[in-house]
Every structure is written in structure tokens, then in C-alpha cells.
Design a protein that fits this description.
This protein is of the alpha+beta class and 212 residues long. The chain is built from 6 helices and 10 strands; from the N terminus they run E-E-H-E-E-H-H-H-E-E-E-H-E-H-E-E.
Amino acid sequence: KKAGYAVIYVYDGNSYIQGISYIVESVGACTPQYCNEAYCRIKGIPVTVMYTERTYIKEITVDDLPKLYELYDDETIRRYTEPLYDYEEEKEFTESYIKNMYGMYGFGMWLVKDRDTDELIGRAGLELRLIDGKEEMEMGYIIGKQYRRKGYATEVCKAIMNYAHDVLEKSRLNIVVDTDNIPSIKLAEKLGAHNTERSAGSKYMIMECRLD
């Protein structure tokens, strides 16, 4: 580590070396995917999480912020999504998010980019949300206006659902939408989600997807 190498520590249950972020209980746990993600995060390299037919989904970096502000410069997105902070505060938030969300949980809200042009299409991913006093997994998504009604949201969300099932070993996840956001409700239904009726009287509808 002092020489600048990325280090994964195999813990033997007896002794621990301070200051190492990635610890496993056996050499067998050091899969190629785990080693790649550990290396990227230690070196500050954004991980490309998955590919779809037309997009790739990657972790955000501070360098992505100017394009993110362009994405959020949209009346529909501003209506249903919390706004970004002023730049310096958003930069600080992003740096903390990379370290604490990606680094600790291995998932979060990612960027969706076009595989051919590298243009930012939207934002999508998985987060933890407190629902009825319990922490549950939620899938969120934003698609830029020029990419809507072209199947991108369905394509990306299906890939993320597969990731939640196959990699994170989750059996279900939630999609939380405004009750008047009809396009998002229809998309959630297309993905197999149903209204749980757990949000009666709220402006939000909590919809649940089973991951089979």
C-alpha cells in the first residue's frame, strides 16, 4: 500500500492491518469483478457497471457535473426530481457520494451514456430508502427529453433489475413515483411493478417489482 499498489486484505480472523479498505474472508472471494471494482475505487477510476444494447451505465465523477446540469435543465425533470445543489456544494456532495455510497455499498445512482456517441442519456440506479421505518431498495431513473419514447428507460431499467437480482441477490425492489407522473407509473407497470397501497394519502406511489 505504501508503494501505491491497490490492496485487498485476506483477513485470517486473528490479526488486522489498519488502513486497508477492502477486506475479504478468503482468497476465493477475490473474484475478477470484485478485484476490478476494488482497484478502480482505490485508484479513483469510475466503474462501468453494465452495458445494454445501446447504452453503458457507469459511476459518476466530478468531471460529469457540467453535463448533469444540462440534463437537469428540463421542466419535467425539475418537476419530479430534487434539484441539484449549487456547483461547489454539488461537487462536494458527489465526492462524498462516490466514497460512501459506491465504495461502501457497491451501487447507487449511476450515469447512463450512449455507447456510440458517449453522450449523457440520463441517470438511473439503486438506492436505499426508508419506507415504513424499514430500509428498502429503490430503483430510480431519469431520461433526457431527447431520448424519451425510444425505449431507453425500459432497456436500462431491465438491465438494472437483472443486476439487482443476479449481482446483489435481491428478490424485490421498489419504484417510488409521484401519483401524477403518469409516464413513470406506466413504465413501472411495464416492468412488472404493482401499487403496494403503502402510501395512502401521500403524493408518492410505492410500487414493487418482484425479481424472478
